[in-house]
Amino acid sequence: MSVFTGWRAALRIARRDAMRFKGRSALVVAMIAVPVVGVTALDVTYRSVSPTTAEQLTAEMGSADALFSDQRIGPIEQLPDGDRYEQVDENAPVDENAPPLDISTTFPKGSRAISTQSVPASITTGYGIAETDIHEFRTSDELARGRIELVRGEFPHGKDELAATEPFLKSTGLHVGSVTTVRNFGKKYTITGVVEEPDALNTKALYADPGAVIAPWKAKSDHDKKVVPPNTSTMDWLVKGPEGVGVTWPDVMAANKSGVVVKSRQVVLDPPPDSEIPLARKGGEEYPDFSEGEPNAPLITVIAMAVLEIVLLAGPAFAVGARRSRRQLGLLGTCGGDRRHVRAVVLGGGLVLGGIGAVTGVVVGLAATAVFRPMIEAWAGHRFGSLTLNPMEMLLIAVIGLVTGLLAAFAPAIVASRQSVLESLTGRRGVRRSSRVMPVLGGCVLAVGCAVAIYGGTSGDSSLVAGGSVAAELGLLACIPVIVGFLGRLGRLLPLSPRLALRDAARNRGRTAPAVAAVMAAVAGSVAIATYMSSTKAESAFDYTPNQTQGTVVLSAFAYSSSGPNAFTQLPQARAAVERNMAVTGGHADFRRVWAGSDCDVYGDDENSCGSLELVKPAGKDHVCPLTEKGAKELAARLSSDEHRKLMRSPACLAGTTASGLFSSGESGIVVADEAMLSTYVKLDDPAAAEALAAGTPVLLNEAYAENGEVTVKAVHRYSEKDKQNRKLHPGKARTTTDRLKVYVAPAKYAATPGFTMIVPQRTAERLGLHTAESGSVYTVSHTPTEAEAQQTYGALAQAGDGVVMQSESGPDGSVDAMLLILTLFAGMVTLGAAAITTGLAKADAEADLNTLSAVGAPPSVRRKLSGFQCVVVALTGVVLGTLAGLVPAVALRLVDLRLALQAMRQEPTESAYTPIVLPWPTLGLLVVGVPVLAGLLAAALTRSRLALARRAG
């Protein structure tokens, strides 16, 4: 019999076996297809989410041929994509007062164009007041298609209508038919429809026809000096060139002579040679070639672990399948078949079921992407141009599924071929002692794999990270039989059902080990992704610089506004608005701004006519940040990441970085307040600090300014001619005073308090001859204000005037990388599926033992408990080992990030190199506790209690 004839017979037997045991075959197909579905969906999603150049141009210029923009800098030269341009004569003067260019003269003859321009505005909402952008753009024109699309309702027509995006309506409580007022000049508009920008679905904006907003706003400001003129953007033009011609490169260069930058669809898609591009002829460096760098390390690692996961997921299914077909395989031996033919039949099953699983996975993956397309587009924030398929990639994914099916059947084929004909026909399994070589070899491979992955992380080699992670997982896989055997010895300490479950797992290691490996593979991916995500989130939180203390709302009165220099008189009404609309907890703290000499903020004098305040740093290296001094790069090269982080958070390096205009503390960082500010904003719970303020002693939050418990305040008292009131109080020439004050020095951690550096009591400021004025209040809130709460408060503040603003701190961005989130959800689903399917297969393989248990008189509850604990053993062992395996690639990938961060730190010493490794304890707790318990309960619930009649074997 030839090789091909033998394989043909093996495939025929495998096909018939698959059809005979449809349930088991369906499980095998599912184990192979589920990962293939995920990989296919991710591939199609990635290609569809990444727009092509043609799709990017449509999103930018609609159905027009080109986008024209006047830069008003004289003749220019540009690259074909329009993203880079330069003046022809860099020394040529630019006349800012020259009349605007009639840009229509630069369009090709026979062209048609529409304009687009935007302006920020304050509008009324269903809750109160909000700030948004209004775009003057004829959305109903055919040239706008692709850039703006109508979702429902109608496009605006006329001077009193607007269209809005869906996110804008949701955030403001408005709807189609609502009337909103542009508060900047008091005109009302009706919202007639909902539109969307296909490439920016999360945009919150309004759209009006040209001339509907900006022109009447300008006219109103010309007649009413209280109306501030609109701050408009540059006007761009979407141009449709002559029919069949478009906008060519000569048209682009002709427009460049007038200072107009042109992005032409025809030129970008089919650029001219460099010899025809003046800017490119100036030098190769002027026309950069962006080549692809090293592949993304997390992506390579995820792909490598996904392939291994498919192999391990399908492995137990083929192992159980070979066991269930052992009688048939024994008959093959009685007919003259040898081990080679037995292996061929089992491998043929892998080929048949792997092929079906691969094809099914690709088809279902495509269908799932199409079905969930709206959800994916919402996540991505833009519409697909189309479902982009790469046939070669689809074929490669199917081939990978097929090959991994064969690999998954390889080990069961070897085991099945080693069974004697007698064992196969009688169904006797026997007990085989585990190999003593495999655990030792597995331990060595595990150690080498970890070392390679860590080395790859420190050297930045992503291929070593992926290879080492896979090797470590394979090494751990080889140790599973020994681990399962050790667990069997623990059974003597447990009650009947868990004792039987552990002993059964240890006795049937050939069945238990593949099931544990399958769960381990799925959990390893989940843990690796979750750990990487939680670590990068912690890094982002560290790098985030808050504007104010989180959980607070700050009301600030402008020192000067259109309401006049007495805007603080609006504070009582503003406080009432916050207390009525915000989730305020407890009382509030009032603060005052402080200055010396003339109040520049009020009178708008130049620097030489104003007073100033300054906290003077004492001399000495303990008060100076070494990261900003000479030799900082050499110092950064010697520091570790943790040492650098500690230094960046030191009071000396925080000095001068926390003060802001929020409290009108300026560069001095001094604010006048009482002890209520300590508990409400600073969160300094120390009676000594409160007593110090009450006694007139300032509280210093940054110890870098203190020396021997004292701080030096330098005040320059300078008065302008306009400042007659203060001149009467302080006659004479400008003078400088330096005062040393005894202060309460707060612990070092309070140096990071944003907004100010020192709190001075009112009477102390007056004693020093400084001026103070009521400036605002601070409230503690139970949660970050919602958009509705903020808009309600803004509306109430607007009724009081425009002299008071409200600010809140939302904290670091809580969002995560959406792709990593999808991978985590997918890995979690596969984890649960693997636990359920593999333990279900193990239960099917142990059906004879369960029947024997019932036959000897065991009650139905024991049967259920045994099935449940069998499932728990497999799931819990796999989850714990998977957690350990998943930490290897996560740590290695973070080391790659650490290497890049250290390189950036040594170039710029003030850049953070903090790259933490944070374990996702909620995810680990869910996997280690939740998954095994859930799997065990489901197995117990689905196990039949009554005795099933079975043929006696042997």
What's this entry about, in short?
Strand 4 and strand 5 form a beta hairpin.
Derived from helix and strand composition plus strand pairing, the structural class reads alpha+beta
The CA-CA distance between the termini, in Å, is 33 Å
Q: How helix-rich are the residues, as a percent range?
A: 40-55%
Oligomer: single chain
| Total count of helical runs of at least 4 residues | 33
Mean pLDDT: 81
Shape: globular
Number of strands: 24
Main β-sheet, in a few words? 10 strands, mixed
Rg on CA atoms, Å: 36 Å
Poorly predicted residue ranges:
284-295
**Relative strand content:** 5-15%
What characteristics describe this protein?
alpha+beta, 10-stranded mixed beta sheet, 24 strands, 8-stranded mixed beta sheet, 954 residues
General description of the model:
- It is a single chain.
- This protein has 954 residues and is an alpha+beta fold.
- Among the domains are: 55-272, no CATH class; 476-544 and 815-954, no CATH class; 545-617 and 655-808, no CATH class.
- Helices cover 50% and strands 15% of the residues.
- The chain has 33 helices and 24 strands.
- The strands form four sheets. Strands 1, 4, 5, 6, 7, 8, 9, 10, 11 and 12 form a ten-stranded mixed β-sheet that branches. It has an eight-stranded mixed β-sheet with strand order 21-17-22-16-14-23-13-24.
- A hairpin with a 4-residue loop joins strand 8 and strand 9.
- Mean pLDDT is 81; it is low at 284-295.
